[in-house]
Amino acid sequence: MRFCDHSFCIYQEKGRCILKKISLDEMGLCRECILLDLPESEKESIKERMRMEFEEWDQWPEKYH
Q1: Rounded mean pLDDT of the chain?
Q2: Which of 18, 31, 36, 38 could form a cystine bridge with 42, CB 3.0-4.6 A?
Q3: What is the per-residue DSSP string for 24-37?
Q4: How far apart are CA 48 and CA 56, in angstroms?
């Protein structure tokens, strides 16, 4: 299992790719990556929730407060 930071890829689980074999394109990106297509309203909700979590953890950069 390889490290994978594409959290919206259907083959990513707990930060790892579950595929046994992958191929990379000329940019080094996985050719097998299939991203989830979420409705825009759901994406915005997730982004807002994540921003609040970062603010709570005091990790959100000052310029964005």
Answers
A1: 84
A2: 38
A3: B-TTS-BTT--B--
A4: 12
